[in-house]
């Protein structure tokens, strides 16, 4: 508890700095921008001194940082288990740089050039695509690990099924999984990017596989209720080994985050947006793009390609099945669902008759 004397000292030394910081933040019209700037500035000073550096209590001496401090903070964000993209890291650094320019203009004894560092390259398109059959193969290969195989298998399968980020998966606890009272599946809930609550159903089969992790001898030493206990370094080594075994070329730039993108090609873009927990549909559209685009199937060519519907009647059943199987996973999944609905309708008609 702060005494009356200490309170006056805090007021004398800190209030001016805090009020000027809030004035700087308040000059942005967007409430979203204000929140992001305040969070970035708070996080930076708490990183510098977790105990004493709440911005409410900053004084002018606290503003004197070195260029090396900013570089270390950038590296800290790059190495963070949340697996931040370069774009996200840049968005955390930029508010600090803008603040120091503002404070220098307002005659604080600082040099804003001190916090100037090179921003990281735009990596929004860097994570390479991964396809369902490849993701499934990765999961199967992971089982070959004698000690951690079951946990690695479940991590990869959970990653491409739920599309949760690595940090969210590693934070999952057993109590985050609930039986769905309305269907034969389970609901997994996590707090994702932007502190948004996100719930995704998983199959009873996947849940059964997750429970097998508890049966592993090494698991008995854990009592923290966490599902996964793999370190980011272990996951990186796992991905490197899997890519080598599967012959995935480095140029494809496949990363663990690529598993999250597998589901982007399924369903409608609105379904993918909801599943990936995106705020903006333009982000989902970017995820649905693969780096190696097939221009032979472009709209500009198909619109000129007049083919009569009767052509399908000239194919055998085996040829039609072959064409269907060759479709991308999203189209094939929809065809299977339509076929299942048609069969269900047939069965219903037989019962009625």
Task: Write a structural description.
Residues 19-104 form the Core-binding (CB) domain. Belongs to the 'phage' integrase family. It comes from Paenibacillus silvae. The chain has helices at 4-26, 31-48, 67-78, 86-105, 132-142, 149-162, 166-171, 204-211, 232-246, 257-261, 269-276, 281-288, 299-302, 317-325, 329-352, and strands at residues 177-179, 186-191, 197-202. By secondary structure, the protein is mostly helical. Among the domains are: 4-115, no CATH class; 132-262, hpI Integrase, Chain A (Orthogonal Bundle), CATH 1.10.443.10. Strands 1-2-3 form a 3-stranded antiparallel sheet. A hairpin with a 6-residue loop joins strand 1 and strand 2. Helix 3 (67-78) runs antiparallel to helix 4 (86-105) and helix 11 (269-276) packs across helix 12. The longest helix has 24 residues, at 329-352. The radius of gyration is 26 Å and the shape is elongated. Residues 5-13 and 290-304 have low confidence and may be disordered.
From the structure above, extract its key features.
mainly alpha; hpI Integrase, Chain A; 52% helix; single chain; 3-stranded antiparallel β-sheet
Structural class: mainly alpha
Tell me, what's the shape?
elongated
CATH topology of one domain: hpI Integrase, Chain A
CATH class of one domain: Mainly Alpha
Question: Count of DSSP E strands?
Answer: 3
Query: What count of helical segments does DSSP give?
Result: 15
How big is the Rg? 26 Å
Mean pLDDT over the residues: 81
Distance between the termini: 80 Å
């Amino acid at each position: 508890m702060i005494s009356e004397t200490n309170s006056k000292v805090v007021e004398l030394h800190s209030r001016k700095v805090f009020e000027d910081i809030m004035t700087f933040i308040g000059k942005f019209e967007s409430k979203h921008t204000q929140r992001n700037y305040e969070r970035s500035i708070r996080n930076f000073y708490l990183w510098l001194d977790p105990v004493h550096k709440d911005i409410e209590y900053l004084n002018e001496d606290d503003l004197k940082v070195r260029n090396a401090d900013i570089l270390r903070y950038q590296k800290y964000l790059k190495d963070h288990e949340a697996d931040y993209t370069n774009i996200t890291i840049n968005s955390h650094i930029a508010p600090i740089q803008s603040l120091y320019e503002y404070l220098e203009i307002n005659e604080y004894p600082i040099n804003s050039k001190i916090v100037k560092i090179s921003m990281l390259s735009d990596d929004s398109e860097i994570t390479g695509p991964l396809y369902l059959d490849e993701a499934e193969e990765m999961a199967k290969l992971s089982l070959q690990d004698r000690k951690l195989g079951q946990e690695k298998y479940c991590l990869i399968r959970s990653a491409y099924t739920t599309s949760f980020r690595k940090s969210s998966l590693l934070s999952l606890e057993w109590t985050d999984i609930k039986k769905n009272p309305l269907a034969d599946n389970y609901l997994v809930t996590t707090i994702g990017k932007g502190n948004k609550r996100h719930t995704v159903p998983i199959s009873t089969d996947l849940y059964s596989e997750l429970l097998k992790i508890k049966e592993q001898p090494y698991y008995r030493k854990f009592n923290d209720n966490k599902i996964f206990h793999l370190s980011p370094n272990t996951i990186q080594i796992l991905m490197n080994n899997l890519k080598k075994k599967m012959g995935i070329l480095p140029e494809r730039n496949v990363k663990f985050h690529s598993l999250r993108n597998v589901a982007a090609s399924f369903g409608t873009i609105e379904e993918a947006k909801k599943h990936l927990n995106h705020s903006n549909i333009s982000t989902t559209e970017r995820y649905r793009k693969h780096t190696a685009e097939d221009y032979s199937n472009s709209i500009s060519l198909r619109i000129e390609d007049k083919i009569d519907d009767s052509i399908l009647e000239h194919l055998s059943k085996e040829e039609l099945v072959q064409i269907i199987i060759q479709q991308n996973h999203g189209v094939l999944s929809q065809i299977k669902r339509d076929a299942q609905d048609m069969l269900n309708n047939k069965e219903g008609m037989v019962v009625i008759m």
